[in-house]
Write a structure and sequence with these properties.
By secondary structure, this protein is mostly beta strands. About 5% of the residues lie in helices and about 40% in strands. It contains 2 helices and 28 strands. The protein has a single domain, classed as Beta-galactosidase, Chain A, domain 5, CATH 2.70.98. The strands form 7 sheets. A 9-stranded antiparallel β-sheet has the order 11-12-13-14-28-24-23-18-21, with no helix packed on it. It has a 6-stranded antiparallel β-sheet with strand order 17-26-25-22-19-20, with no helix packed on it. The radius of gyration is 19 Å and the shape is globular.
Length: about 350
């Protein structure tokens, strides 16, 4: 079989963390032409090259050229997120009658919460990496143990995450975890996309579709209030394609709270099977992507906290709303919301989750 590109994994040094840990980069070249640079520090996707409608490749994700960039700025660019992605209200939850206290590392609207696993989430660990290949697809496997009490969470949690690039230009992420004590687990990937190219302006002209008839509204602190409300007739209805910027300045309380879109959508598929969640299209390049997931929720964040003071990888500064994230997940604050799908993993069970980003052009 002839491939558009010969699939390969190339490993080289990427520097070291401020505490002296060595960081390795894995360059995954997929048979379909997508190329991804990934580092074992936080499982971060540093660069992601996809072709436009003319076959010209560009880096379509935000990141930094060295470890220091991530340690200084830390916008979770391209990172694996855990032990719990998104926000947990007040940095507390009760599990089996016991209260657990987490680091409070985020206070939007003056409302404290624990965000993306705390002050040292999975994005700040150096994982154990090894290359993968099945003869057609190539990838990298990351493993780590989050010890009992890590950031306040109970249980020793053993985590495996696999990134695959397939000949069909699918980036498949497989998450697995086991624990020896009951604990919340909500793993996701915080890659930021800009299909015009890294540091090529805002993403407001991208067209987004989300397979969700409902969303979970938040309060002024972006903490869910435990409800699911219909999106029909609101700026949150992406059941058909909309330009992201078309309604972002609408007179809507939820948009004011988030400074734009930074919310969880209740995906229509809730049965745990791999199913469509979202689609993203950029007209000038023709780049198109489908998001498929087994997860019940999707956090769409349009870069409301990004600034033009942050340097990009090619010498140009990034832009306000210069990237967007489509994070597949369980709903925010689920440990404190009994009516939400449970995010509790118990001993003897295996946490499994799959998300696919399917790249093409049109």
């Amino acid at each position: 079989m002839r491939y558009a590109c010969e699939p390969s994994v190339v490993i080289k040094p990427f520097g070291q963390t401020k505490d002296g840990q060595r960081v390795q980069q894995y360059t995954l070249t997929g048979a379909g032409g997508v190329v991804m640079d990934v580092i074992d520090y936080g499982g971060k996707v540093v660069r992601l090259f996809t072709p436009d409608r003319n076959g010209v490749k560009a880096d379509v994700t935000l990141g930094f050229n060295d470890v220091a960039g991530y340690e200084i700025h830390d916008p979770y660019f391209g990172s694996l997120i855990g032990r719990y992605g998104n926000r947990i209200a007040n940095g507390k939850f009760v599990l089996d009658g016991k209260t657990y206290v987490l680091p409070v590392n985020n206070e939007p609207g003056g409302k404290p919460c624990s965000l993306h696993g705390g002050t040292k989430g999975f994005d700040a660990y150096v994982w154990n990496g090894e290359p993968l290949s099945d003869g057609k697809s190539v990838g990298v496997q990351f493993k780590m143990r989050s010890p009992d009490g890590d950031q306040g969470y109970p249980g020793n949690l053993d985590v495996i995450v696999r990134y695959w690039l397939t000949p069909e230009n699918v980036w498949r992420i497989e998450y697995e975890a086991v624990t020896d004590k009951a604990t919340p687990v909500n793993l996701t990937q915080h890659v930021y996309f800009n299909f015009k190219g890294e540091a090529e302006g805002a993403i407001l002209d991208h067209e987004l579709t989300i397979s969700a008839d409902r969303m979970t509204p938040g309060n002024v602190g972006l903490i869910t209030v435990g409800k699911r409300i219909p999106v029909k007739g609101t700026p949150f209805d992406f059941t058909v394609p909309w330009q992201i910027g078309a309604r972002i300045e609408a007179d809507d309380e939820q948009l004011r709270f988030g400074g734009g879109y930074d919310h969880n959508w209740v995906l229509n598929n809730q049965d745990g099977r791999l199913a469509p969640a979202a689609a993203l299209y950029e007209k000038s390049t023709g780049r198109f992507m489908e998001v498929w997931t087994t997860e019940p929720g999707l956090q769409f964040y349009c870069g409301n906290f990004l600034t033009d003071k942050v340097p990009g990888k090619r010498g140009k500064n990034l832009a306000y709303r210069g990237g967007l994230a489509l994070e597949t997940q369980h709903y925010p604050d689920s440990p404190n919301q009994p009516d939400f799908p449970s995010a509790i993993l118990r001993p003897g069970a295996v946490y499994k989750s799959v998300t696919e980003y399917r790249f093409s052009v049109k």
